[in-house]
Amino acid sequence: MPTPSQDRPLLAPIVNAETEPFWRAAADGILLLKRAKASGVVHWYPRALCPYTLQETEWFAASGKGTIYSVTVTRRAGPVPYAIGYVELDEGVTVLSNFVDCDLDTLRIGDRVKVCFKPTDGGHKIPMFTPA
């Protein structure tokens, strides 16, 4: 029997001065990443200094496309089943996220996915992924 994705309540993120551009872009349906200004090295999770080069960073709009690196479907952690896993973005970084708007049992490592944004209880939108 297939396990369809279901919307579930999402807590609002904690927004501060450093993360505010990310959440503002997410509200407009844009996934932002950070890269080192001088070298262009991309990293995730966004931070002021690149963890690889210790250089200052800048925001840029990501394609929002990637490949499933790992996935697991959780059916017993609450009333609504959900899928979580890692997505290797085309920009070269790997992010942990949820998979939505699909039959959760059909998700496979290597499948192409694209970003989508789901609303939280606090009005912000959180990036998640759906099959491309």
Q: What's the short version?
A:
The protein has one helix at residues 20-27; strands at 32-36, 42-43, 57-61, 65-74, 82-89, 94-99, 112-119, 125-131. The chain has 132 residues and is mainly β.
Q: Output the number of helix runs.
A: 1
CATH architecture: Beta Barrel
Q: Give the strand content.
A: 35-45%
The assigned structural class equals mainly beta
| Poorly predicted parts | none
N-to-C CA distance: 23 Å
Average predicted local confidence, pLDDT: 94
Query: How many structural domains?
Result: 1
User: Shape from CA axes?
Assistant: globular
How does this model look, in words?
There is one protein chain. With 132 residues, the protein is mainly beta. It has one helix at 20-27; strands at 32-36, 42-43, 57-61, 65-74, 82-89, 94-99, 112-119, 125-131. It has one domain (20-131): OB fold (Dihydrolipoamide Acetyltransferase, E2P) (Beta Barrel), CATH 2.40.50. Helices cover 6% and strands 39% of the residues. Strands 6-5-4-7-8 form a five-stranded antiparallel beta sheet. A three-stranded antiparallel beta sheet has the order 2-1-3. A hairpin with a 5-residue loop joins strand 1 (32-36) and strand 2 (42-43). It is globular and about 50 Å long. The model has no long low-confidence stretch (mean pLDDT 94).
